[in-house]
Structures are given as structure tokens and as C-alpha cells.
Design a protein that fits this description.
five-stranded mixed β-sheet, alpha+beta, 7 strands
């Protein structure tokens, strides 16, 4: 691993979520890394290491086009780094949330809407790579911007149909 600053590793690990290749995840994410925030994503993202973080990125990219992260502030204290950012995108495909058992829970059909959601990410860096990740996200703000909340009766029907289609495809 090339020596780099903890802040550069943390920022790089966020930016690759939008468009990084698997090799980028191997560079920034430790083999033992845990994404402690991936509790509603697909089961592939709930394991450890670069493959889990990459699976989460692919899950986000599949639903949100033009995915990008604006970095506002970065603060480091030893091996702990905090990044304040905004995630931006456009909802172009169904976005599925999963149960703890990995089954489809909720599916938000595409609205075509754009969003800008505030996020704070916390990283622990080990051997020049991310080994732990936590986050605070404005999921409710994102949901409101995309028209998920409050849902119209028509959107609730679209959600039920999208969930049924995804379950049949699994």
C-alpha cells in the first residue's frame, strides 16, 4: 500500500463510490473493513472488505444516475477521519431496501427526480486503508426531494408493483 494521508484515504473512499472500479476499492478499503451503515443494502454489501464496499457502490449507482459527492469539510484526529459531504444524483431505476435476512423489504420506483443529501462519514484508517465506516445521512431529506415521502396513493401502488417485480426476478 502506498503511504498517503488518512484524510486523502477517507476522501478517496467516498469519491470512488460514484465511479470507482473494483481496483480502486482494493486500493482504499482494507480487507477487514466493515461498513457499519449498510444495514438496508443488498446482502453482498454486508460482508467485509473491498468487495462489500464495491457492492454497495454498485447498488447506489444502479438506482441513481449522475451520482457525485461534494466534499465540504474533512477533519482528522489520528486514525479517525470525519468527512462532511453532499451526495447528489438522479433517481432513474428502482431502489430496493432489504431486511436483515437479505429479503426485499421496500422498493422505490424511479421518479426521475434529483436530490442533494447532506452526509457525514466517519472512517478509521489502518495501514493506509479504511477499516471502519460509519455515517449520518439525511435520508428523510433525500426521500422528500425524490417524492418518496409523503407518498401519494399512486406512488404507493407503484412501490407495491416494483417490489413484486423485483421479488419475482430474484
Amino acid at each position: 500500500m502506498t503511504t498517503t494521508t488518512p484524510t486523502a484515504v477517507a476522501v478517496g473512499s467516498i469519491q470512488i463510490m460514484a465511479d470507482g472500479e473494483f481496483a480502486d476499492f482494493e486500493r482504499f478499503v482494507h480487507p477487514e473493513a466493515v461498513n457499519r451503515e449498510d444495514v438496508v443494502g443488498p446482502p453482498e454489501g454486508r460482508t467485509t472488505g473491498p468487495a462489500a464496499f464495491y457492492a454497495t457502490a454498485l447498488w447506489l449507482r444502479a438506482a441513481f444516475a449522475d451520482l457525485a459527492y461534494d466534499i465540504h469539510h474533512v477533519v482528522a484526529d489520528g486514525d479517525l477521519v470525519t468527512v462532511n459531504s453532499t451526495m447528489n444524483g438522479r433517481h432513474v431505476a428502482p431502489f430496493a431496501l432489504y431486511t436483515p435476512a437479505g429479503e426485499v423489504d421496500t422498493v422505490f420506483p424511479p421518479t426521475g427526480g434529483t436530490f442533494a443529501a447532506s452526509q457525514s462519514h466517519w472512517f478509521r484508517i489502518k495501514d493506509g486503508q479504511v477499516v471502519d465506516h460509519w455515517a449520518n445521512r439525511d435520508d428523510l431529506g433525500q426521500a422528500k426531494q425524490l417524492g418518496w415521502v409523503p407518498p401519494s396513493p399512486l406512488y404507493l401502488i407503484r412501490m407495491a408493483r416494483a417490489k413484486a417485480r423485483l421479488k419475482r426476478a430474484m
